[in-house]
């Protein structure tokens, strides 16, 4: 059954509704906007002064590799590589979330859509060849530090060792275009979510 992309981070939606702390709500709202812009391939709107600090630092742990993107130029390059890989569309299941004055922590199973030829170029052996689409599922733990204004300072991401790759039936594929069509009308602007005194 095709996943309803508008429900991709429903746990975050519920946390926003339940939170009364202004800073925590601003952090959650920032994270939700960030996450939805990312799956829509609109990363440039994440890296604006009302969403992200001028020099963010991302630390991405992936099995035995660590990728550090230190500063805005490096983070821009990281996002650009995801768009070029045609792998920005993701949804979450089994998600848990915690928020504090320091930032936000999440744990979930990530389900990311990949074109087969992009996976094959990384050395992945595919069951149905490079012309099919695949869903890569694995557990993720993330810490997103925020400043006192509810602005993102960076990301620390840990990918689990439980990666599973399965062919995606064509009728279950979710495209970037579909994400934009369904998610963008639901999104609040950066001005609407900013922390106010």
Kindly state the percentage of residues in helix: 25-40%
Low-confidence stretches: none
From the alpha-carbon coordinates, what is the Rg to the nearest angstrom? 17 Å
What structural class do the secondary elements suggest?
alpha+beta
Give the averaged pLDDT, no decimals: 95
Care to describe what's here?
The chain has 197 residues and is an alpha+beta fold. 29% of the residues lie in helices and 34% in strands. It has six helices and seven strands. It has helices at 10-18, 22-39, 72-84, 116-120, 176-183, 190-193, and strands spanning 52-62, 65-70, 90-100, 103-115, 133-145, 152-159, 164-167. Strands 1, 2, 3, 4, 5, 6 and 7 form a seven-stranded mixed sheet that branches. Strand 3 (90-100) and strand 4 form a beta hairpin. The chain is globular. The model has no long low-confidence stretch (mean pLDDT 95).
Describe the secondary-structure layout.
Layout lengths: L9 H9 L3 H18 L12 E11 L2 E6 L1 H13 L5 E11 L2 E13 H5 L12 E13 L6 E8 L4 E4 L8 H8 L6 H4 L4
Give a concise summary.
This protein has 197 residues and is of the alpha+beta class.
